[in-house]
Structure formats: C-alpha cells, structure tokens
Amino acid sequence: MEFSDFLALLRRKRQTIFVIVLVVTMLTILVSLIQPLKYRVSSRLLVTQNSDNTDAYSLSRSNEYLGNLFATVVYSGSFYDKVLNSKYNVDKNYFAGDYSKQLKRWNRTVATKTKQDTGIIEINIYHPQVSEARKIALAVNDILINNNQDYHGGKNVEISVIDQPLASNYPVKPNIAANSLLAIAISFLFSLFYIYVFPEERYSLYVFGKKSVKKNKSKKIKNNQGEINVKPDLEYKEIINEEEDQNIEEELKGNISNIIR
C-alpha cells in the first residue's frame, strides 16, 4: 500500500479510529476510577559518613552506594516487619492476607529513589488515608535513622532527615490524566494497525452512524423514440453518443440517395 493510499484510507476510516480511541480511553478512565484513590507522603533523607582518612570522591561514592542500599532494603520483608512493629501503630489490617500478599501490598505502598552522587534518598508512601501514610513514612524514616546498622557493615554512618514527611493535597494514584494520555497514544497506534489489516468496509466502526450514499436521480432524455429514463454521468454520455451516431448515419444515407438520383 502506497502512502497516498494510506492517507486516503485514514480519511475514509476516521470514524473507526475515533471509536477505537474513545472506547479504550473510556475503559482506562473507568478502571482507574474503580481503583482506590491513594495519597502520597514524601520525605527525603541524607546519608553521610564521618571519616578523616577518605578523600571526598571516595566518600561521595560510598554515600551513593549506601543510599542505593538503603533504598533497596526498604522493600525487604525484615524492614516491613520493623515498620509494622514500630511505635507508630501502623494499621496491620491494611496489609491483609498471607505473607506474600502482604509484601506485594507493601511494595505497592512504598517507593524509593536516590539522586546520583548525593546520597539523598527520596521515600514516597502511598495510602488511601493520609494519616496512615504519614505514620508509615515516620516509621520508615525512624528505622533508617536509628537501625541502619542492621543493613550494612560500615561505621560512622549517619542518616538525617532533610525534608519532613509532606502529604499531597489530592490523591495521586491512580494518575488518571497520565493513564488517559497513554491510552490515547496506544489506542491510536492500534487503530492505525487495525485499519491497515482490515481495510474492508465491513470492519468499519461508526459512532455517528454510517453515512448514506445519495442515489443519483434518473433523467429523461429525448430522442427519436421518445423519452428515456437514464442515470447521469456515463449512461447519459453513452445515450448522447448513440444519438449523434444515428444522426451521422442518417445524413450519410441521405447524401448517398441524392447521388444515385
């Protein structure tokens, strides 16, 4: 299929493309709204080491390593157990089910990331209740500050809070806007593939109804035999040509008769 043909197909199948994009986007929004809305509580920690015998570059690389280590440890089962048994009275009913399901929910509740070469850890907690999210954030920070030695073999490692837990004003999960934009992009690409594979009219989709094709009204053409109902365009031209041929033939016959006389 040439590019010009594909452009013509796009114009002809624009309703099909619109229907696919609309349906997928609406389903995505519906699924997003069905899920529980979650708030986010964010905080930032800084990993530092007190050492006089290490150059600044090596110390920076060591802090970065420790930051990545602590950011990964937060997802572990032992860390999760410390959070539940902390002094902050985290609601255990939220993490229901067997232990594997509890860890899966815990991994969806907490999210960490580090900034390269800084030793800064950003911790995000997602929960339907802001108060519970804040308690979990405080528990995570407290464990990292006071019990970080359980997860490394170094010395003189200190973790301090540089940004206290801050809650979002509105739910951030699921992100309906981002999910909708992603659904539009994916469904549009799928619709292009769909019309390319199924270009026939019977696979077309309509939301405003199929456009009716206007029938050309027949016209009455007078000739020697009377009036004839014909369709315009080609059939009309054919009849006109036939009448011209008949007139030429009659003129030739008349000329031949005069010559013979």
Describe the structure.
The chain has helices at residues 3-12, 14-34, 56-73, 77-84, 99-109, 130-146, 176-197, 234-260, and strands at residues 39-49, 110-115, 120-127, 157-167, 219-223, 226-230. Strand 2 (110-115) and strand 3 (120-127) form a beta hairpin. Strands 2-3-1-4 form a four-stranded antiparallel β-sheet. The chain has a two-stranded antiparallel sheet with strand order 5-6. The chain folds into three domains: 3-33 and 175-203, no CATH class; 37-167, EIF_2_alpha (Alpha-Beta Plaits, 2-Layer Sandwich), CATH 3.30.70.1130; 219-260, no CATH class. It contains eight helices and six strands. Helix 2 (14-34) packs antiparallel against helix 7 (176-197). It is an alpha+beta fold and 261 residues long.
Q: Topology, pairings included?
A:
Layout: H1 3-12, H2 14-34, E1 39-49, H3 56-73, H4 77-84, H5 99-109, E2 110-115, E3 120-127, H6 130-146, E4 157-167, H7 176-197, E5 219-223, E6 226-230, H8 234-260
Antiparallel strand pairs: 1-3, 1-4, 2-3, 5-6
Give me the strand/helix succession. HHEHHHEEHEHEEH
Provide the CATH architecture of the largest domain.
2-Layer Sandwich
What distance separates the N and C termini?
67 Å
Report strand order across the widest sheet: 2-3-1-4
Approximate shape: elongated
What percent strand? 15-25%
What is the CATH fold-level name of the largest domain? Alpha-Beta Plaits
Strand count, sense and barrel status of the largest sheet are:
4 strands, antiparallel
Whole-angstrom Rg: 39 Å
CATH superfamily of the largest domain: EIF_2_alpha
Structural class: alpha+beta
Parts with pLDDT < 50 across at least 5 consecutive residues = 213-221, 230-240
- Structural domain tally: 3
Alpha plus pi helix count: 8
* Count of beta strands: 6
Residue share in helices?
40-55%
Mean pLDDT: 82
